[in-house]
Specification:
It is built from eight helices and twelve strands. The protein is of the alpha/beta class.
Amino acid sequence: MTGEHILIVEDEPDIAAILRDYLAREGYTVTLMDRGEKVVAFVKTVSPAMILLDIMLPGADGKTICKEVRKFCAVPILMITAKVEEVDRIIGFELGADDYVCKPFSPREVVVRVKAILRRTLGQTNDDVLSQGPLALNRSSRVVTVNNCELNLTPSEFDIFSVLMESPNRVFTRAQLIETVQGYNYDGYERTIDFHIKNLRKKIAEHLPGQKLIQASYGLGYKLVI
């Protein structure tokens, strides 16, 4: 998967340079941007494989950029933030981010996350279609439909839903979901599953109002019930 184009949007030169150097050593093509106002146009033109996006940026902040990018593509977005408050992570996920990392962070950890995300979003070749009731999932096109209406899912939302679809009525713990979907499981990141599940429920409810297909097993995790 080396050679994939990664866009880093970070206004702190030292952090941007470290991330660029670590990712370049892994064989990725890296573009750096230190302002936010030109990011959306760049993504439309270049179509990078992934975006590492700082929240606090001059020109346009990361949350605004994430929201705008999600209007036209599902490129994986890893948010970089100096803020550790849960509300900031929730907002980021609601806008369509796939993952987040808080400063200060280990560059090696970021590389692990980038590899895991790209492996699952670019490495799938199985074209099987899963169908459960009104739901259908195509692994090759990475499309989910509800009553033949396509859902606009982020890469992480698609992969979580794929796991649940493969084994309906089976309860998956948060740790199992994040390990399966993200490819790693660091302490403190299991709550990210809750944010993604919340978004999935909201998007499904637009086409199946009143039906709660993704159910919580309290103290355990989540399952898909058809």
